[in-house]
Amino acid sequence: MTSSSRHSSSFRDPSGFIFVDQGIIKRSISPLYFKQYNALKTTDFYKKLQHAGLLISHKELSVSKEEIIIEPEQVSFINYPYEWSFNQYKEAALLTLKIQKFALENGFSLKDASAFNVTFYKGKMIFIDTLSFDFYQDNSPWRAYKQFISHFFGPLLLAKYNGLESLKLMNSFIDGVPIKMVASMLPFKTKLNPFLYSNIHLLAKFEDKHNEDYKGNSKASSLSKKAQLNIIKGLYDFIKKMSIERSSEWGNYYDKTNYANDAFDQKASIIDGWINNLDAKTVIDVGGNDGTFVRKIKQELKEALVCDIDYNAVDANHKYVKQHKESYMLPFVFDVLNPSANIGFNNKERDSFLKRIEAYEPDVTMALAVIHHMTLSGNIPFEMSAEFFSKFSKHLIIEFPKRNDSWVQRLLNTKGEFKAHFDFYNINNFESSYSNYFQLIEKVSIDNSERVMYAYKAL
Prior knowledge:
Elements: E1 16-21, E2 24-29, H1 34-40, H2 44-51, E3 58-63, E4 68-72, H3 86-104, E5 108-110, E6 118-121, E7 124-127, E8 133-135, H4 145-162, H5 169-172, H6 179-185, H7 194-206, H8 225-241, H9 261-278, E9 282-286, H10 292-295, E10 303-308, H11 311-324, E11 329-333, H12 353-360, E12 364-367, H13 371-377, H14 382-390, E13 395-401, H15 406-413, H16 427-434, E14 438-445, E15 451-458
Parallel strand pairs: 9-10, 9-12, 10-11, 12-13
Antiparallel strand pairs: 1-2, 2-4, 3-4, 5-8, 6-7, 13-15, 14-15
Helix pairs in contact: 3-4, 3-8, 4-6, 6-7, 13-15, 14-16
């Protein structure tokens, strides 16, 4: 295996790289990391992390003097930090600290603490970088401490004090939100908190923007293991207690929907019937709110991606997933009007939503109560939304609210003198545009409502 075969996202770590072999993700380990890897795989703590589902498991494929090749458990859909809700982000931060504590207690340490080393998988966060562990050096500070602050603690604090949209900053700062920037954006009262002053404001004073090497705690060149464990415990306890005010337009959407109970049940029944007829095993629900309609599907699903623009709705879904151990459900934050783009060096380090979902190839895409928002809030023509869904949808279940629907009227009334421009919003134009990309399987009107359900197959 040569370095030219490596995945475009895997070039920063000299210890090894990942590559794709006939659609399977594999990892090449270089001789530079042989000593650490061979020591790790014999330890109980490493095996315990994998068995507990905290660290991705792998199997060893080949060993030579030039490289070791391992095959990690395959993650079907990688999600990124800028697509997490607040509590998903918290869970990822706590997982990283938990792993670092466990590693320290067993003679190892995480050499990096990137949020991109974690993804949401099978109902919980999991650490996916097998080569992040290094030997612990006596009295050495945690070299990834500053990275943890800029990738985890800083973004969480910004989300708490400045709004949940702050979590999207990782989309722009792939190497972590600069600590000086975090400090400048936090309210003055945070300087009066000794813990925040020490871990944010004082750290920001020592941050050299021209020498971002993440070599540890700038306040000390020597740090005992006990002191380091105390720092980790302090961060863990503080982050675990962090919370936010929950208030949003869509967080309790189904409590104030204009559906009558029988119409709501009929809609769920229609979806369940279509999913069953298609024998779907994987679905993505675009604008799926808290996952309500996916949970009403009786057909056993292998995996369901449920995404929504509303952080609180995604958080509610995440909480339900955790409480009920729904390992098949993957909630994440997604703006259909502005999907995640390719970012990083050469725009190839982190894949766009479209690239990931096209590779995922869901059996069914669900788009319920979303087309009127795309069309009337985002000014997206039917032709363009149909093209968007066609890029990754084998089958599409989509709901169309007609002009007299109360939510449609609400959106139209916000257009003021431009309301007449949206006369094109009608069921005939919708059907005409979508017929250019999809073949109609079935169309059903929902009783006692102004909504129509469509089942389409991609052309």
